[in-house]
Amino acid sequence: MRIAILSRNPRLYSTSRLVEAGKARGHEVDVIDTMHCYMDITSARPSVRYHGKKLPYYDAVIPRIGASVTFYGTSVVRQFEMMGTYSLNESVAISRSRDKLRSLQLLSRKGIGMPRTGFAHHPDKIDDVIKTVGGAPVVIKLLEGTQGIGVVLADTQKAAESIIEAFMGLNASILVQEFIKEAGGADIRCFVVGGKVVAAMKRQAAPGEFRSNLHRGGQASLVRLSPAERKTAVDAAKTMGLNCCGVDILRSNNGPVVMEVNSSPGLEGIEKATNKDVAAMIIEFIEKSAEPHKTKTRGKG
After folding, report:
1. What's the pTM value of the predicted model, to 2 decimals?
2. What is the rounded average pLDDT for all residues in the chain?
3. CB atoms near residue 16 (< 10 Å)
4. With contact defined as beta carbons under 8 Å apart, do 58 and 4 qualify?
């Protein structure tokens, strides 16, 4: 097969591992910088051009698109889909998962466990937004934040009101969520490929930090999932319409709750924590699934 990986940096661990896994299984693999692609959308034969040349036909494309370039990146993926190329994650599903509000609304509609969440842009009564999610302490998140950026824990009512007012002063849209204290600063990253959890790790926040992101000093370790946690991860991926994703779960007193569904999860932490060849599993799934013009919008909304 001929496979394209949409990535801005071929030296990134995840990108290089996917290249390695693809070539090890006999495939031709190219790394293409998403932001240097440009599209011919005027002709009857859609194409993608790159460095002045028309790209050849690829059997499959693996989107590794950063949150900051979601709009253009999904446009490129959509163009490949129009050309008949199979995409590991479809453009609509990526856009759906990147919109935090939209994804939470879809998870809620499907009855998937999640923290009590409020959404506000400029409420008349800030205290009512806080009360809606159960009162302080609360977690306040910028709608566009990634990797723990724009996520603040407010311990008291007054602190929460001040932080919300500050974000409003910046004309920012925010999510207010209940704080799952019993999680103890830890979450579980479930790596889902093809409707199955193929690997899972526990991420423990650094001392004095409540965000467990590995980018923020969190430590990863192997974890055993309960049947409920495994089902929650699979259901969340299916709801988003993602074939490959990372589902972040907290262990609460009311069972597993989903914090986020990541359409472009990193491989380094999960492979090192579990000692599993996740990159090879992704390539194997593409081998079984890739067919011309197979793209269809999964999920609703």
Report:
1. 0.89
2. 89
3. 17
4. yes
